[in-house]
Write a structure and sequence with these properties.
The structure holds two protein chains of two kinds. Chain A is built from four helices and nine strands. Chain A is 32% helix and 39% strand. A five-stranded mixed beta sheet of chain B has the order 2-1-7-4-5. The longest helix of chain B is centred in the middle third of the chain and has 11 residues. Chain B starts with a strand and ends in a 6-residue tail after the last strand. The chains are: A alpha+beta, B alpha+beta.
Chain lengths: 148, 86
């Protein structure tokens, strides 16, 4: 199994993610991307998110997630990419992808990848609203909002 | 007398509450129990206290399962509020 894992301040390319998921016999490819949304904020509207990461434990956990995707869904290739730093509304914050033999495990693997990433990888985001005041997003709000 | 310091790493809401991403916490040669350090952090930075109650803690890259661990000079102690990637 091949896993591409990135925590980067550089923009994420969906085309590059799809290329990373190419492989012989991998007929089902699913890619998910999450973009920063202009959610309502108490003092206006979100204009950016700032992402923090604790890099060493985050990378370790991402590798564990990739290995589980291989074992559980038979993923032949996996992409787990996340941006760091300040992202404006509309920018891609996260890209996950899985390539499997068929579509059903590819969809299931991609769903597993994004849900595990959000729940168990030490990454945090803080909103910047139009006023410029920081407002950390709380867990309860994150479940259905922010990106994706 | 302090013999060194523990580096406290702060992320996300913890960083916002304190205003910076790291704090050097002086300790003596016996170090400090994680529980006492967490309590002291909450006293020094009252706006951090609610976040501390919801956080996990990591010493030198390893998650702590309790707060009885002893932290020594040179250790890195990270505050992990609930995660929020994606």
């Amino acid at each position: 199994m091949s896993a591409s894992i990135r925590l980067t301040s550089r923009p994420l390319s969906l085309a590059a993610a799809i290329r990373s998921l190419e492989g012989s016999g991998l007929g089902g490819v699913t890619v998910f991307a999450g973009r920063v949304r202009p959610d309502a904020a108490p003092r206006g509207r979100v204009v950016a998110l700032v992402y923090d990461v604790h890099r060493a434990p985050a990378l370790r956990r991402l590798k564990e997630i990739a290995r589980t995707a291989e074992r559980r869904f038979g993923a032949g290739r996996v992409v787990l990419w996340h941006r760091t730093g300040r992202l404006a509304v509309g920018e891609v914050a996260v890209v996950v992808g899985a390539a499997c033999g068929h579509r059903a495990p590819a969809f299931a693997a991609a769903r597993y990848l994004i849900e595990e990433l959000k729940a168990s990888v030490p990454i945090w985001k803080t909103e910047r609203a139009r006023s410029g005041r920081p407002r950390p997003r709380r867990r309860a709000r994150r479940a259905g909002r922010s990106t994706g | 007398m302090p013999k060194g310091s523990v580096t406290v790493l702060l992320f996300g809401p913890a960083r916002e509450a304190v205003g910076r991403g790291a704090v050097d916490w002086p300790v003596d040669r016996d170090g400090v129990e994680a529980r006492d350090l967490v309590r002291s952090l909450g006293e020094r930075y009252p706006s951090l206290a609610p976040t501390l109650r919801a956080s996990r803690f990591v010493r030198n890259g390893e998650y702590l399962t309790g707060l009885s661990a002893r932290l020594r000079a040179g250790d890195e102690f990270a505050v992990h509020p609930p995660y929020g990637g994606g």
